[in-house]
Amino acid sequence: MTDVLVPADGRVGAGAGLPAPAGPAPRWRGGARRRSAGTDTTARRALDRTLIGLLLLVTVVAVLAPVLAPYDPVQPVGVPKLAPFADGHVLGTDQIGRDTLSRVLVGLRTSWLLALVVTTVGLLVGTVVGLVAGMAGGWVDAVLMRTTEVFLALPSMLVAVAVAAALGPGLANTFLAVTVVWWPYYARIIRGEVRGIMARPHVEAARMAGVGRLRVMRRHVLPGVVPTAVITASLDVGNVVMVLASLSFLGLGQPAPAPELGSDTSRGLVEILDAWWIPLVPGLVVMLLSLLSNLAGDAVRNRLAHRR
Amino acid sequence: MDVTASLLAEAPTPRDASRTDAPRAVGPVARLQGLDVSLERNGVRSQILHGIDLEIGRGEIVGVVGESGSGKSVMSMALLGLLPESSRPRIDGTLEVAGLDLSTASPQEVREARRTRLGVVFQDPMTSLNPTMHVGTQVAEKAGSREEAIRLMRAVGIPQPERRYGCYPHELSGGLRQRVMIAMAVAGDPELVVADEPTTALDVTVQAQVLALLAGMRDQLGCSLVFITHDLGVAAQVADRIVVMYKGRIVETGTTREVLESPRHPYTMGLLGSRLSLDCDRTRPLWALPAEAPGAGGSGSGCAFASRCRFAVEACTTTAPALTVLGDDPRSAHAAACLRAAELAGEASAPVLLPPLPPLAAPDRGAPVVQAADLECTFSVRDERGRRARLAALRGVTFDLQPGESVAIVGESGSGKSTLLRVAGGLERRFTGSLRGPRGTDVQMVFQDAGSSLTPWLTVREVLHERLPGGTPRDVREEKALAILDRVGLPAAVLDALPGELSGGQRQRVALARATIVPPQVLLCDEPTSALDVSVAATVLNLVNELRRDLGIAVMFVTHDLAVARIVGDRIAVMYLGRIVEVGRAEDVIAHPRHPYTRNLVAAVPQPGRTAEPLAGEPASALDPPTGCAFHPRCPVALPECASTVVGVQLAAVGDRPTSDVTLRHEVACVRRGES
């Protein structure tokens, strides 16, 4: 029974002073699912481990894609529009005779590794901004969070398209375009989490113990936001895959001969009645990749929730 | 209390009529025989209750007492058929409640029984009431109609029940919320009400009211009550019979008088012996039950208590004692599960007296180490309706702390005692008035909840090391950390532990170690023992006293418990609504309280063998403190001028003590201070 007084204008607690913490997320962006992790069973653990293992396998395949690909992905190596399994081409060939499997493997590499980089960089920027805003409070917090909200208010897909179109096609430009609209989301979540931790007595106790501001940030606050950051990012990376594929589909990815899942789908679309595998295989790979990373994100969240 | 009398004074309802027409079933309302309950947590099944034999008679009040981990809460959940499904409860033995065998009954039958024949009061009414529903609607859900709900709300002492009917839980005070819970519990005229620590979260004066209400409830309604608490003194206030539990077993049971006056189980003696009262010997360290030896208990065939028992003999580690009736009369209610119960009568149960502390060297009466004058602290908050309001936490506090002196600050919630501590510690800077005192690491604080005041992901080593000044070599840090751990009575192995791996008492010791590894001038303690079991609390209080003597630290100790204040404080300052109303030497304030509020606080302390005289009303809101003396609306001896005058409620010395020395002065803020 303490009577510690928390002033109502003191903005204590997660997300205080902000509109609803989650906010209306764009449709293509699922937002962090925060439903309860449920009970932990042996079957659940096994499933979670399998999902995480599968995603790691995808990562290994993506890294090794140039080695694993049976043919050169950009050179015609056979008769155009060969059906799957014909002539040694497991997934057939495309309009100009390039091996579909090789193109999909290398395309997967670009999509998945770029998604990981975008998520990581977005998370790093978001964590720094969120940490500084949450710990400093006052006008620093206000300036940083209002800036963040300006970014959040813009429709992120449109901004990404606009940035990519303005900078021209290319890997680096796609990366920039998506990262620019991605970090504010993390910044806001981290900032809310930091406010929550700052309201806990252990931060005040550390201050009383004479611990300096930087050390409080590094040792008493930052480790507390890591689980949230990891969970948020792992649930979000599937969305990044989708956005990157969408940009590529719209022709804003890498220029023409480079294999990319999105652009291969869009360019192959005209062939769908003729040679269904040309657009369908890369499209399905995008779908499966996004699905798998979402499920694995849930699995990571479950494992972290039950570890604590 | 007259409010309980109105339970019957109200017009009888059809249900009352039916009660007289159809007499209830005879026999006990609950029968537990050889009851074993095991629960699963994280895939590991462990047995929580071991062979519980208990009968609860009609209209009987049974107090179930035990420390944390005794299984008392699991037993209350079992009585209500509320064991969580997620932990896959397994029940063996007989569990009959209100004529229903709960181990075989269908969920529908259990639900029906809970609605019509059982009632429950939980510890925290804020979390057990639905925050999105009007409280009246919630009572009516169980009572059946709005009229019945209002009748019940009036009967449990809720003023203006028609107006409160449409309030949400957060708009009511803690005491009123608990009354709403009680109204819900007694709605439908239950046969058995289970109250799990119903007064633990309440202020002392409100606790006394709620205890009186619960005891009156049985007299008026004839329902049985199972009262679960960690405090024997509280149980003694209401219970006819007391059941003492340890590690999921009943170790002693008997009438309240038998258990309190001639306890026969060493655990009961230990609980009584480590219980703080207003007449413990202040000159000696408190005796406490020894902590459990590491790795003991749980397994083994012997008595679960053997490792902590000062009377244990060889046989205790091999033979599990059964609950055996004491004395010659086989129908006697007094039974204990101890091999030596027969020998341990009489003087064995006398409290253990430890050697007295050496007298405190007269401290150097130099300049006060903390000197506060006219401290005022006002926060801008939202009131319960969401409007902006000004909350006056401190309303003119003048206060000195001498070097090496210990002052206990006592008050109910909202009295401003914690705010005063935070201002003194530099954690709260929004105040007016003058404050001189140490700054930075020369003032250290120990918080109420050691669990949340230690960073969960840092080891004890890191927490202790970072308190030492920068540039200290690593081996020196390690050496000092080990030395302070030894001083607070923790093994060196604790260095590598995370707070989550320690017990509550150990965490509070770590918090004390952190605060004193470099001795500060002033140590601030914010209710450091209120969340601990009695025996653990006693050792922590001893430690505070010891550290303070050895290191010459001045202590400000905030507590809501006068018995604690008396142990740690050379002086006691009583606060009410942001002001100190009485301050003086601990023995003067406890033995000769002069302010009517202090007198009521002293009278409200639950003591075995004494019925607390509850003070009417609840602390006024700090959002709108009464004019004049803030206490006058509740004051039994208020004069008309108390409401208007400001003159005369300032602190002024009373009695014949020399007034030149601040540590000896007895000051009271009351216009009638001159009368005794």
TrEMBL record, chain A:
It is a multi-pass membrane protein. Gene3D superfamilies: MetI-like. Pfam families: BPD_transp_1. Its main location: membrane. Residues 17-29 have a biased composition (Low complexity). InterPro entries: BP-dependent_transpt_permease (IPR050366), MetI-like (IPR000515), MetI-like_sf (IPR035906). The keyword Cell membrane applies. Residues 8-41 are annotated as: Disordered. It comes from the Bacteria. It is found in: Cell membrane. Keywords: Cell membrane, Membrane, Transmembrane, Transmembrane helix, Transport. The chain crosses the membrane at residues 51-71, 112-138, 150-168, 174-190, 221-245, 276-297. Residues 108-297 form the ABC transmembrane type-1 domain. PANTHER family: D,D-DIPEPTIDE TRANSPORT SYSTEM PERMEASE PROTEIN DDPC-RELATED, OLIGOPEPTIDE TRANSPORT SYSTEM PERMEASE PROTEIN APPC. Belongs to the binding-protein-dependent transport system permease family. This is ABC transporter permease. It comes from Cellulomonas avistercoris. The lineage of its organism: Bacteria, Bacillati, Actinomycetota, Actinomycetes, Micrococcales.
UniProtKB/TrEMBL annotation, chain B:
Residues 1-24 are annotated as: Disordered. Pfam families: ABC_tran, oligo_HPY. The keyword Isomerase does not apply. It comes from the Bacteria. Its main location: membrane. InterPro entries: AAA+_ATPase (IPR003593), ABC_Ni/Peptide_Import (IPR050388), ABC_transporter-like_ATP-bd (IPR003439), ABC_transporter-like_CS (IPR017871), Oligopep_ABC_C (IPR013563), P-loop_NTPase (IPR027417). Keywords: ATP-binding, Cell membrane, Membrane, Nucleotide-binding, Transport. It is found in: Cell membrane. It is a peripheral membrane protein. The keyword Cell membrane applies. One of its GO terms (molecular function) is ATP binding. Residues 32-272, 370-602 form the ABC transporter domain. Belongs to the ABC transporter superfamily. This is ABC transporter ATP-binding protein. It comes from Cellulomonas avistercoris. The lineage of its organism: Bacteria, Bacillati, Actinomycetota, Actinomycetes, Micrococcales.
